[in-house]
Write a structure and sequence with these properties.
alpha+beta; three-stranded antiparallel beta sheet
C-alpha cells in the first residue's frame, strides 16, 4: 500500500491536469455558493460588489469571460507544448519532468479553467422575465466572475514571463539540481560521523536456492519498499538479494531476486510486489538520476551541433554542488542482518565512486579540447578533494589523473595545456606555469 500510494502521488505531481481539475471543482462549488447568496439578496440592494446591469448585460459579460478564458487556455497549452519540444531538443528529454511538475504553470492553467467554469455555470442562471422565471440577475456571481477574469489576465501576463524564464538553461539546471538535492537530503540524511571507510557489500555464501524472475512485465526499477521487503524476509529463514540497482532496466524474464535457504515461508508474490517497475526513472529513490539529467544537458551542450561549453559549465556547477553535499554524507549499507548477525537482505546501492564517475567521465570525454571544461572539471575535483574524507579521495585523485591524460592528448601546445590544467571556478583566470 505504501509503494502504491507513493506511485500515485508521483504520477499526480507530474500531471498537468490535476491542478486545473481541482480549480474547476472549486469554481463549481464557489458559483453554487454565490448563486445561493444571490437568491437572498434583495433586488434593490446596492453595494460595490454587486453587478447593476440587466440580464442582457450580465449575459454578455459572462459569455465574454467564458470565451476569452478558453482562448487563454488554448494559447497556454500551445505555448506549453512548444516549450516542452524546445526543452527536449535543446537540453534533454529527461528534463521534461521538471516542466510537467512546474507548479506555477499548473496554477495558471487552473485559474483559466476555473474562470471558464465559474462564468459558464453563472451564465445559466441569468434569466429574462417570463411566465416561467422572474427577472433574475445574479449580481454577486457576475461581480465575482469579473474578479476571476482580472485574475486570469494577471496570471496570463505572469505565465508569459515565467515561461520565458523557464526555458533558460540556468533555470532548467537549477530545477533539476534542486530536485536532486531534495532527494539526496531525504535518502542520505546523516553525516559521516566517525566512519573510516565505505560500507562493504557482504555476499551470501553458496549458490542461490531460487531465482525469482520478472515474468509479468519489464521496466525500470523505480522504487523499492525496503521496510515491507525486510518484514517479508524476517518472517522466513531465507536470505534475499535484489539483483538490479535502482534505475536499472529489468527485461522480462530476467532475475529480480536471488534467494538462499528455505523458501517455503517466503511470500514470493509479495516479494515481487515490494518493487515497482516503471516506464522511466524518477528521483524518489534514485539520486543518480538527477546527476544523469545534468550530465545529459552538459553533453548536449558540448555536442558539435550546439557547441555551448558555457552551458556545460553551468551544468558542472550543479554537479559540483550536489557532490559537495554528498561527499560527507553517510551512505546506507547495502546489506541488512538480523539480531543474530546473519545476513538476510542485500540491496545494491551506488557508492561514492559511482557518483564521481557519473559526474566526470562523460563530460570529460565530450569536453576534450575545451580549455574551459577541463579547467572547470579540475577545479571541481580539487575542491572536492580538499573536503573529502580520506577513504573518498582515491576516486577524485583518479579523475585528476584522467584529466591530465586527456589534456596531454588534446593540447599539443604547452601554453594551452598549462591553461587547461590550471583549476578555475569559471574556466578562466591567470596563466599558471
Amino acid at each position: 500500500m505504501k509503494l502504491w500510494w507513493s506511485n500515485l502521488l508521483e504520477r499526480l505531481r507530474g500531471s498537468l491536469w490535476v491542478v486545473p481539475t481541482l480549480w474547476a471543482a472549486g469554481a463549481a462549488l464557489l458559483v453554487n455558493l454565490t448563486l445561493a447568496i444571490d437568491d437572498r439578496v434583495d433586488d434593490d440592494e446596492t453595494a460595490f460588489f454587486l453587478f447593476y446591469g440587466g440580464p442582457a448585460s450580465a449575459r454578455e459579460v459572462l459569455s465574454t469571460i467564458a470565451s476569452s478564458t478558453m482562448t487563454f487556455t488554448g494559447l497556454v497549452f500551445s505555448v506549453t507544448i512548444l516549450v516542452l519540444q524546445l526543452a527536449s531538443s535543446q537540453f534533454s528529454p529527461r528534463v521534461l519532468r521538471t516542466f510537467l511538475r512546474d507548479r506555477p504553470s499548473q496554477m495558471c492553467l487552473g485559474i483559466f479553467v476555473g474562470t471558464f467554469v465559474f462564468a459558464l455555470f453563472g451564465l445559466r442562471n441569468v434569466h429574462d422575465p417570463s411566465d416561467e422565471f422572474d427577472l433574475q440577475v445574479p449580481a454577486l456571481t457576475v461581480w465575482v466572475a469579473i474578479v476571476f477574469a482580472i485574475g486570469a489576465v494577471g496570471a496570463f501576463i505572469y505565465l508569459v514571463h515565467h515561461i520565458a524564464q523557464s526555458v533558460r538553461a540556468v533555470t532548467v539546471l537549477q530545477r533539476v539540481g534542486d530536485d536532486t538535492r531534495a532527494s539526496l537530503s531525504r535518502l542520505y540524511p546523516e553525516g559521516i560521523g566517525d566512519e573510516l571507510e565505505e560500507p562493504q557489500r557482504r555476499m551470501v555464501d553458496g549458490e542461490p536456492t531460487l531465482l525469482v524472475r520478472a515474468d509479468h512485465r519489464s521496466g525500470v526499477l523505480e522504487a523499492v519498499d525496503e521496510e515491507r521487503l525486510w518484514a517479508l524476509v524476517t518472517k522466513s529463514a531465507a536470505a534475499v538479494e535484489l539483483v538490479p540497482t535502482m534505475g536499472d532496466f529489468v527485461p522480462r524474464g530476467s532475475v529480480l531476486f536471488k534467494i538462499w535457504g528455505d523458501v517455503d515461508e517466503l511470500d514470493i508474490d509479495a516479494l515481487v510486489g515490494s518493487t515497482n517497475l516503471g516506464e522511466e526513472r524518477s528521483m524518489r529513490q534514485d539520486v543518480p538520476f538527477g546527476l544523469r539529467q545534468i550530465v545529459d544537458v552538459a553533453e548536449r551542450a558540448l555536442s558539435p551541433s550546439i557547441n555551448d561549453p558555457t552551458t556545460a559549465v553551468q551544468a558542472i556547477d550543479q554537479l559540483h554542488d550536489v557532490l559537495r553535499i554528498l561527499v560527507d554524507r553517510r551512505f546506507p549499507e547495502p546489506w541488512r542482518a538480523d539480531d543474530d548477525g546473519r545476513l538476510r537482505l542485500v540491496l545494491p546501492r551506488p557508492d561514492w565512486s559511482s557518483y564521481v564517475h557519473l559526474a566526470f567521465d562523460e563530460i570529460r570525454s565530450s569536453g576534450q579540447g575545451s580549455i574551459q571544461i577541463m579547467r572547470r572539471l579540475r577545479f571541481m575535483a580539487e575542491d572536492l578533494l580538499a573536503v573529502a574524507p580520506s577513504f573518498r579521495r582515491r576516486a577524485l585523485q583518479e579523475q585528476i589523473e584522467l584529466l591530465d591524460a586527456s589534456i596531454r592528448r588534446s593540447f599539443a601546445d604547452r601554453t594551452d595545456a598549462v591553461r587547461a590544467r590550471s583549476p578555475s571556478p569559471q574556466g578562466h583566470g591567470p596563466l599558471v606555469s
